[in-house]
Amino acid sequence: MRRLAAVSAIVVGLVSPAWAQADDDADETDESTDEQRFQAFAALGDREAAAGRPRAAVAAYRQALKLRPDPLIAGRLGVLLVQLGKPEQATDHLLDALQLAVKATPAERKRFFEAHEVARDAGAWIEVLLSHAGVRVTIDGKPKNCVGRSSFWIFMRTGEHELRATLDGYEEAIVPFTVKKREDKQLPVTLIPLPMPAPPAPAVYEPEKDPPKVERVVVGGDAKLPKQEDPWGYEDPRPAQKSDEKRWSIGGGPVAVFGVASWMPAVGIVAEGRWRANEYVSLGLEGRAAWLTAGVADRPISAMTAGGIVSGCGHWRWLYGCAIGHIGVINIEFSRTSYEEQSSTLVKPGVGGRIGAELHVGRSVALKASIDALGLTSGLQVIVGQTRLVEQPPVLIGTQIGATWEF
Question: pTM (2 decimals)?
Fold first, then answer.
């Protein structure tokens, strides 16, 4: 009864002000009303979660996200879904929260990360590659909204599953597949056209009894007939075909780096240029910078890293692996409001490796995602007075996504 009363109060509080405002101010926009409803549902979800009613909190958070996206509310929804045993519904929300929820407290960001790791242990990401656009797809009997797309990602629990794909004029494709813990993979789905009906029997041709005789004309010498009378005697010049092979590419995108004075992510950007020697080998040069999203050891101390990376990569289909070298700095800056103003910049060269995947979405555009690990020449310590706040090992782990343009 208490829950029903709370929901009724929210509904009355949403509807009554809307009627009153319609009478007092007819020019109020729908956007402000939607924002009020969003705030009301978000607050209701927070209260239900604090009261230990996760299912009611999930319903409120979902109503809020229908009004507008918010990474902080998505993260809270993802944590509750993991608690309710629905990790396959939580991974998208938790990824959004980890990447975009800049207003989250360090404690709440830690809960997002821990919930995401629990969800990842429950299954794997599957990339479904469709041979035709407009295919209707069901997975384990549930429809998937993917019309108009040739590929999509979906997180699935470990175990046996079945995908069915249908399209007018093609045989139904039934693809069973197995999902193993944290083993992301591609699932190609190829539709086969239905056999065409046999064409009608051709009419019987009856030649004329006395076909006309054609006399052969012999032209002597170097006489050359006009093109209208002898079209086969002329060859049109063919333009030289330009090679479609693309050697250079530029690109960029967001990056998250772990190990910058903390295992919390430092978020920033990366830009790269790459030269492709052949189908299997490429060389690249990139620059990246990332800033820690929270204070060091919950203190008013900020940190960032910036540097350049040179890479030599081997390619096989859509996968690639690289040996990388890094030269860069880590900067630690103490807040002037709490400490004597001080900034330390430490040079940190290192070497490591990278593994990634790329998907071409056009003749010249590709999407890329990768993860890399770097071993540095030395670790990092942050000491305040006689207290050692941080002793970070000489390791940087980075993950990035982005797009490249090839030319």
Answer: 0.41
